[in-house]
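Lecture 7 notes: from sequence to structure.

We start with a single chain of 448 residues. Read the sequence below before looking at the structure.
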Amino acid sequence: MQKNSMIIRNMTSGDTVKLIVSFAVPLLIGNIFQQVYGIVDTMVAGYTLGDSAIAAIGATSSLFSLIIDSAWGINSGFEFVITRLFGANDEKKFKNAVAGMAILNAVIAGVLMILSLFFMNDIFHIMNIPSSIYEQAYSYMIFICIGIPATSCYNMFASIMRSVGNSKIPLVFLIISSILNIVLDILFVVTFNMGVAGAAFATTVSQALSAIMSGYYVVKHYKPILPQKNDVKQNKTMVGELVSSGIAMGLMMCVVDIGTLIFQSVNNTLGDMLISAHTAARRIIMMITSPMATLANATATFIGQNYGAGKYDRIKEALRKVITIQMLFGAFVFVLVYFTGEFLAVFTTGTHDKGIIENAVLSMRINLLLAPALGVLLTMRVAMQTMGRKIVPVVSSSIELIAKILSAMFLVPQIGFLGTCMTEPIIWFACMVFMVTNYLVSRKNLFV
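Now the structure, written as tokens:
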């Protein structure tokens, strides 16, 4: 493919770990800044509006994740396809796939936004949103749903850049939009007294800006590899590959989040204090485990390019080394949270409620005890998906869904918040065993 002045990184040669880590660093910084969206919303709401605002945001966190992860997951599935085509140096099919990616994104984003807005009340009733925070939670989610097209657009443009090895430019746009989000959070919530709706509006505006900037950059700097008029016409094979990969990845994310949604609905019956504790813990867990997700995603890009190029030994080597790094980092974050959990809970929420702080710390310590398993699970899920084994990650996610439903039905009602804390780490371990076993059994068929 023509390179010209485009930022392109070919990962089919060179040191495996060095390539993955150097690609992952900008992704990690960007991931942290993305987490800032949620953290800043929680902090501004907690410090300005009080514990009920934290509960309102937290009670809808699983629904927020379902919507955002759907858009991210589908685009990640598309990205796996175009990454393999880039590795295979098939310019014609690459352009055809990017055209299909844009069309499918427009349709999916519109449908997601309309369905989310239309069924919001019904979903809230299913989730058992407490009446004391219902109005705040509803106003927060309305603005989040309106921003779905912007979220999808950013993910699409970022996926195009990542598929050719560029993880730095998406980072720049995320930093700018995250800083804007902080400023707008303070402006809308503190100055304009818009409540939690102001925090959501700030997030939506910031995401829209990142989508506009990334779209402009891709069109200006990647024009040689972007589709032309004759590339827009789709053949059935390409559409089928995009849809199957996008739906498989999106379904994997959705199944996980639907399980979390059901799980959240039971947790919402435990009271505002425990909802706030759960919210604080999840925000911190997501932040400090983001390097694991980032390393897994960087590995997916590496695997995609090398799988397309038929360089299977490099994939095996990368997986061995990345899994080792994931397990070591998982042990580190457990130790970190064990000794600093209380400080992190207070800093994140601004609360002085001992019940919120103590339960948030309990949740973090129990969850992160099995953080090494989470790192391995994240890596193996995207690795198998990238190599075209779409069903296995979906089955793994389905196991997670079933386990969360069973926990919601039996474990949490029996032992309360302790059941909430125990559920996810047990699931991480079980799904990790399933994914690793499947990889070892099917390894001969993967690399042919």
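The chain is about 85% helix and 0% strand. Keep this in mind for problem set 3.
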